Fold each of these.
Amino acid sequence: MHDSAYDQIGEQLSHFQSAVDMSGSSMAHFIERHYVERWKSDALYHVMAIRTSFVTGMQEALVRAGLLNLERVQMSLVTDPLNHDVEHTPTIDYKGQRYVTTHSMIYSKFLACLGPRIQGVWVDSPNIRLEVPSPDGGQRGRYLIDFSQLDVEVRRNRGVQLDDYYDRPDEVREILRADFERAMRFFEEMFRAGLSRVLERNEGDLEALGVAIDLPDDPFPVFRLDEGLARHGRSGIEEKLGAETESPFFWIGGLMRENYDLIYPYLNRDGTRREIASFPSRDVYNFDLCVKGKLRRGGAVTPAREVLSGAIREWLAEPIIARLLDNRIIPTAPVFRDGRIENIDELGGYGPFLLVASRTDAEGRSTFPETFGGGIGIERTLWALLRGPEIESIEDVTCFGKNPDTHPLYLF
């Protein structure tokens, strides 16, 4: 018996082959040019060798820090909704139920940190994001619709409860700013460990690609987004801030972005909320790591690109729910009664997650973990570091590509 999905795939391959024939080429020539030549190339060999050292070095650093490896979650009832344009969230129907594919494992990471003995988790997270192609069909360089991310979440264990959140803002701010610094230092050390392994083992590969890596010992510079926007405007902000520092690595902090990235102070005891538009960057506790590459010959640098996004996370049920409402991810607040979610049908896939987020212990204290976390895009980092005479687009650091602006059909 034929599988209907494979019947459809066979038909679309037939149409694609006909189009290739009409262009004066052939399927064999297309595969040879766009796939086989890449797989056989010295450049891809060097990239893969560097990738192996980079990922291994970071993972070993996470193990040394006491974090535990988490299984991949590739389909669930809930995934990261994202705050930028994607075409849609793919779905999988199984046993009469509908699931969504993973944009990122953010909610899975939170739940995995519930165990009090767990210091944190890391996972080679699946990420399927059907990025909207560029309007002009131009190569955007940095995007893949199916990519690898080393995803990390770390417990903070501060014990800050809702009364503290409302009534002790100065003390809570002090805690959050200390943890914000700790989070950036944590990811710097992870990143530095990966690059140190590359410098130990892959100097010949870097030389063959015509690039170099300078790894500073000092903490990376930090720019606040609102201050950078005041100087440069929105367009090309990463590149323009990168031009202000000699460091090849730097942070941009305070990007109003995802619903789970902490903003504080946000909720008031009387039920009112601070206007989202009023938040300066210092009250938005997230960060992007940006990277500039360096050409071996002449020492010129390539424009900065963002490679890692992270944040301190919202951890109390009340602001978690408020942020989901403000971002229009759920239309109404959950109603819990006697262990039931009375309006579960209105909450999409968020009902079970919010039930866990709202749990309290016998003393009425929230049990949801306080964490910070982030994810580093592996292909995006390699592209940012290795651009030069051999590497141009992000597809050049992959075996299989999948940039939304490249091919009408991904064959492998």
Amino acid sequence: MQTMPVSSNSAKPLPVTVVSGYLGAGKTTLVNSILSGDHSLRIAVLVNDFGKIAIDEKLIGARDGDVIALANGCMCCQIGGDLYDAIDRILRMRERFDHLVIETSGVADPEKIAQIAVAEPDLELSRTVVLVDTVNFSNTLADPRLRDTLLRQIRSADLILLTKIDAASAAKVADFQTLLGDLGLSVPIAVLQKTDCLAWRILKERGMTRSIFRKAGALKPHVLPFESWSWTGAEQVHLDRLMAFARDPALSIYRLKGRFRLTDGRTILIHKVGSEIAVESEIGTSETSEFVAIGTKPAFNTHRTDDAWTKTIRDSNVRGP
């Protein structure tokens, strides 16, 4: 049964910032930067993951337990009871927070999430921030199956943050600016550095006044060509075998993220976006590994991925590299 947030006339509306962007654009990194900023704001975070495991929620480090995760949903086509229930929980603790940040999944239509803040009297839409991965954006936009998702995201923004700017050429940045002009968009653009300690300032700024309902009403049905596969287990994996799995072109994994126990005793975090793979060492050890892999259908096949991972685990326990 779907429930709507309860209204409270005694408090001012809770400001809401929607953080969106395609898979691997840097949304969780931005949220972490906001939470660790020197701002004294009490921030509630609502995280939605596309997949059965809410990996992004577990990767949010600077927090005090005020993170609500919604797994296995895209928050774009079906805005159902889970989302309303989560917002209801936050509003019932209204006095504890100064701001609500909603981190959408990488395949979400943020316009539809922003509608909730407009429709709910106890919420006030502050702005919709969309992150753009300057390394992979052009190639992803060229895929006709993905173009609609990316265009929906940037059209919903009143602020666009360019990420991975150090790895992108000036030509790619210029191409993106040209694209915005071709689409008739004059959205403010800023560069987001990975360790930007002032990222929290986006919460203090208000977005442009615009008619969200009129804009959203003109959108066509959002068909999602994505598939996800996840795994949790206590088995350890050899680093070389793990990297071979992540890079295997036959698996067509665009996005991979998670925590892995290695055969050498370490625990690492891995983020894969397109052809890029980043490995981070984690302090301490973990009793389990868990990760999510995402790709586009039909190239990304969950049965093929499952078979390949089973072989990776098996080969990791064979002596030798």
